[in-house]
Amino acid sequence: MADETKTEAKEEKVLMKRNGHYFYANGKRKTSVARVRLYENGKGDIVINNKPISEYFFGELIGSVKAPLRIANALKLFDVTALVEGGGISSQADAVRHGISKALLDYDPELRKELKAAGFLTRDSRIKERKKYGLKRARRAPQWAKR
Length: 147
Prior knowledge:
By secondary structure, the protein is α+β, with helices and mostly antiparallel strands. It has a single domain (2-118), classed as Ribosomal Protein S5, domain 2. It has helices at 2-16, 53-56, 60-71, 89-107, 112-118, and strands at 22-29, 32-40, 46-48, 51-52, 78-85.
């Protein structure tokens, strides 16, 4: 059993290791942070946390992650690897999308107009509000009793 897990771990590392030139960017959303690499001369493979995109995300989230590549007509031009941590599955997808968009700008600054119009370059800065003293949550006050 231990030998099987070691071989699986080696296979996973092989997925993330790629040689060649790449474009790098960080993407963020809520508490999720994605470190994205776009490798030139790829086949269009997208690997997130050492898993193919279809295993990591589902449904419309896959389309959301691929949207910047679709706008840039670069779906088959790059291989994408991303390491994502923090947050939930939806905010992780948005963080990866943000990172891909920023990395595409390094590849071709002329794409800025289209990506900006689609809203992919704007960092969504909405995060959870901090809890305040005297309250139960950020804004929820203790129940008030008249008598």
